[in-house]
Design goal:
Radius of gyration: 36 Å
Order of helices and strands: HHHHHHHHHHHHHHHHHHHHHHHHHHHHHH
Strand content: under 5%
Distance between the termini: 78 Å
Number of helices: 30
């Protein structure tokens, strides 16, 4: 595909200026005084390039009459014919062709004037060049693109019809193995798609280098009318790309409800599995596309389907905080609210870890096990206490869990409680919420560490103060014989040291 760069103004002669502005008499006068007809400016444009670019037919003829080089090339190998063709100056094109302009001339990227005219939808110029004996309708550029590819890519139906009428190969492939139908489908050019589909030998399920068909491309980008046109011509509704995705996977992931419905209405497999065993419902839930989720469920999508690592759609929605999708899934009769993945995480663990209060409440409202354990024996409360979301978010999640009876002193594999974890991570408001629910302020983990030890060790000044206010033992000794003060001293937490000394700590 060619991108044209305008020339610089350096080294422009009076003849260049006169030609560019269409001043025929001035051009003739300058030529009569011996002006160099093929003088070059900075980008090697001749006066003929400029006259052709700006559509000045009479100036073009005057220059050609003075033996201007008709196929002069600039620094991108553009000829005057390229210039006139891309901008649709039909009469200039005809004048150049009469003087032997090369219809097969190529730019540095291999584009012919026909490529550029097709790209810009210059139908009359396309017709003119196709009328030349030496014109090649399926000429290829450096990316193996034909003019028909260009017309399809940019949505020029009339140009596509003209090219096809001259025998252009409807199934021609570029360097990525893309056919014109791929190009038109990708960008949603419905009329071009319909034009291509009228061709007797069109391959509706043509596959590119990654096995994408035109239907995959249209589905991914939400082009409903193109999807319907392709399906109407028998496109394979469950065709697979390299990752084993179907068009339905692509439409579901990208939230294109109408495309999803069109595919399902044409028999798409609602629970098709890709290489990680995800169904379209997994992908829609992961991205939070509620309407797509509803459309899939109406067609019987398996709400309990498990993909890689045994994740369900509910795991995905809970992890990402998609409250509306969670609520939709929770309405399904077959939903398992406490489904576990390979690490024994339930959707509640996911929501608690990521600070999604509304999702936590929705799951608990449907009976989710508030103290369910993952592999390290952590409960959702441990996860909520650990994570460094905004303090208010963590507090709200913790309070929601506690409100549904979460065990405030639940112990994980190292015997730590949520209070240990919140103290260590400096979540003051969470510490206060746990203490408000009568968490044991002096509880010890397997190393004999209290929450105060951990807060002192990590320099959590405000947490230290909150724990002391609730009666934390300032002189507690862990298994290594260290007090909170000793740990604060060892780690250089001066403010914590000062607070502990004020509590009459015994200095070792």
């Amino acid at each position: 595909m060619e991108i044209l760069i305008l020339g610089k103004k350096d080294r422009v002669t009076p003849l260049h200026l006169a030609a560019r502005n269409g001043h025929k008499k001035m051009v003739e006068a300058l030529l009569g005084k011996g002006a160099a007809v093929d003088s070059r400016e900075e980008n090697k444009w001749t006066p003929l390039h400029l006259a052709a670019q700006n559509g000045h037919k009479e100036v073009v003829e005057a220059l050609l009459g003075n033996y201007a080089e008709v196929n002069a090339k600039d620094d991108q190998n553009l000829t005057p014919l390229h210039m006139a063709a891309v901008l649709g100056h039909k009469k200039v094109v005809e004048a150049l062709l009469r003087k032997g302009a090369d219809v097969k001339a190529r730019t540095r990227k291999g584009s012919t004037p026909l490529h550029l005219a097709a790209q810009n939808g210059q139908k009359e110029v396309v017709d003119t060049m196709l009328g030349q004996e030496d014109a090649e309708v399926d000429t290829r550029d450096d990316e193996n693109l034909t003019p028909l590819h260009m017309a399809a890519l940019f949505g020029h139906k009339d140009v596509a019809e003209a090219l096809l009428g001259k025998g252009s190969d409807v199934n021609a492939r570029d360097y990525l193995n893309l056919a014109p139908l791929h190009k038109a489908a990708l960008f949603g050019h419905k009329e071009v798609v319909e034009t291509l589909l009228l061709e007797k030998y069109v391959v509706v399920d043509a596959k590119d280098n990654k096995n994408w068909t035109p239907l995959h491309m249209a589905a991914k980008d939400g082009h409903k009318e193109v999807v319907e046109a392709l399906l109407g011509k028998g496109a394979a509704v469950d065709a697979r790309i390299d990752k084993n995705w179907t068009p339905l996977h692509l439409a579901a992931q990208n939230g294109h409800k109408e495309v999803v419905e069109a595919l399902l209405g044409n028999g798409a497999a609602v629970d098709a599995r890709e290489k990680n065993n995800w169904t379209p419902l997994h992908l829609a839930a992961q991205k939070g596309h509620k309407e797509v989720v509803e459309a899939l469920l109406r067609k019987g999508a398996a709400v309990e389907a498990k993909g890689e690592n045994n994740w369900t759609p509910l795991h995905f929605a809970a992890q990402n905080g998609h409250g509306e999708v969670v609520q939709t899934l929770l309405l399904e009769e077959n939903l398992v609210v406490d489904a576990t993945n390979n690490n024994n995480w339930t959707p509640l663990h996911m929501a608690a870890k990521n600070g999604h209060k509304e999702v936590v409440e929705a799951l608990l409202g449907k009976g989710a096990a508030v103290d369910a354990r993952i592999d390290k024996n952590w409960t959702p409360l441990h996860l909520a206490a650990q994570n460094g979301h905004k303090e208010v978010v963590v507090k709200e999640v913790v309070e929601a869990l506690l409100g549904y009876g979460a065990a405030v002193d639940a112990r994980e594999e190292r015997n730590s409680t949520p209070l240990h974890i919140a103290a260590q991570n400096g979540h003051k408001e969470v510490v206060e919420a746990l203490l408000g629910k009568r968490a044991d302020v002096n509880t010890r983990n397997q190393e004999g560490l209290t929450p105060l030890h951990l807060a002192a060790y990590t320099g959590q000044k405000e947490v230290v103060e909150a724990l002391l206010q609730k009666g934390a033992d300032v002189e507690a000794i862990n298994q290594n014989g260290s007090t909170p003060l000793k740990l604060a001293l060892q780690n250089g937490h001066v403010e914590v040291v000062q607070i502990l000394l004020q509590e009459y700590a015994v200095v070792d």
